[in-house]
Amino acid sequence: MKYLEEYRDPTLARRLLAELAAVATRPWHLMEVCGGQTHTLVRQGIDELLPAGIRMIHGPGCPVCVTPVGVIDRALELAARPGLVFTSFGDMLRVPGTSTSLLRIKASGGDVRVVYSPADAVRMAAAEPDRQVVFLAVGFETTAPANAAAVLLAESLGLANFSMLVSHVLVPPAITAILEDPECLIDGFLAAGHVCAVMGYTEYEPLAARYRVPLVVTGFEPLDLLEGILMAVRQLESGRHEVENQYARAVRRDGNKAAQDTIRRVFRVADKDWRGIGTIPDSGLVLAPEYERFDAWKRFPAGPRPPEPASECVAGQILTGLKVPTGCPAYGTRCTPRHPLGAPMVSSEGTCAAFHSAGRIAPPLMTSTEGPLS
Q: What NCBIfam families is this protein classified in (predicted)?
C-alpha cells in the first residue's frame, strides 16, 4: 500500500532519528495535541526511540475524553426517555457517566442507535416524524462542518423532530490554557493535521509569537510524526518560534474556506467545560440563535444536576500531560478498556487506551516519554 511505502519506511525512520539525535543538544518537551497522533507514537514505539531528553507529552486531543461528565449525563437522561431516538458515533457508547453509559441504556431497552454521519440521524428524523431524534454532536473543528451541514439539512427538510446535543471544543484555546498553566512543561507543539485541514493554521501564528513556542502542523503516520518532531526541535535549537507545516500534502495555511463558512453560519463561539480541566474561555461551539430550534439543550430542559461522585480517574492530569497513564494507580487494574473509570481508557484516541493496547505496564518505565513525570 502506498501509505505504508511512503510514510512507514524503516530506513527513512532511522535517518530521521539519527538526524534528530545529531540536532538535539539539550532536553526538550513536546506535546502532540491529537489523540490519533498519540496512538501512532505509542503503538509504533516512537516515543521510546527518541533521543534521551526528547520527551513527548500527550495532550487533550481526544474529543471523547474531554467531553465533561455533565454532557454524558445529559445524553444518558435523554437516551432513557421513552419514544426518543438517541443517536451517536460508536465511540461514545461506552463512556461512563455518573452512574451508567449509553451502551447500558441501549442494553436495557433504550433506543440508542449508532450512526456514521450526522446526516444519518437527520434521515432517521425524516423517516420517523412522530419521534424526536437527538444526535450527540461532539468533537473538535474536524467534525463541526458535518454537524453544521446536518443542521442545515434538517432546516431544508423542515424537520421539527431533529435536534443536537452539542459539545464541540476548539484546539487553540486549549493550547493557550496549557501554556498559561504555571506547571506547564511544554517547549513546542505538534498541531493536529486534520484540524488544520479544516481551519488552516493562521490561528496558531499569534500563539507561537506570544508564547515563543514552535507549532508544527503534523500528520498521523510514523514518518509524519518523526519529521514533525525534528522540525520542532530544529526550531528550538535555533531559537525560533514559528508555525511550520509538515502536513503540506493535506493542509494549507488558510484551510478549507467552505467548511469554515458552514461552521460560522451555524455555530457561535462560547466558553466550554472540559472534562477534568474546567472551563476554558471561548473554547467551544454552540448553536447560533437562529438555529436554537435544533438545540437539544433548550428543547429538553433539565433540572439541577447532582454533584459528581468522587472518582479515581485522573483524566484531567492525563489530558494536560501532567501524568502518564502508567502513573495512575488504577491503570490496568481497576481501569481497563472493558471496565473503564474514565473516557481516556474508552476512546480510540484516548491516551490510556493507547498505552493499554500497546502493552505499556505499570509502574512507569523511565522512557523518553515518561521521565520524571508521575
A: hypD (TIGR00075)
Return d(Cα 46, Cα 12) in angstroms, integer. 13
Low-confidence ranges of the chain (pLDDT < 50): 1, 364-374
Backbone angles phi, psi at 201, to 5 degrees: -130, 20
Residue 241's H or E segment, with its range, is none
CA distance 274 to 293: 25
Contacts 24+ apart (CB under 8 A), 266-272: 266/147, 266/148, 266/151, 266/152, 266/291, 267/144, 267/148, 267/166, 267/168, 269/170, 272/167, 272/168, 272/169, 272/170
CB 321 within 8 A of CB 31: yes
Catalogue all structural domains in the chain, each as residue range(s) with its CATH number: 2-63+171-245 (3.40.50.11750), 64-169+255-299 (3.40.50.11740), 315-357 (no CATH)
Cα 298 to chain center, whole Å?
Answer: 25
For 335, which DSSP code? B
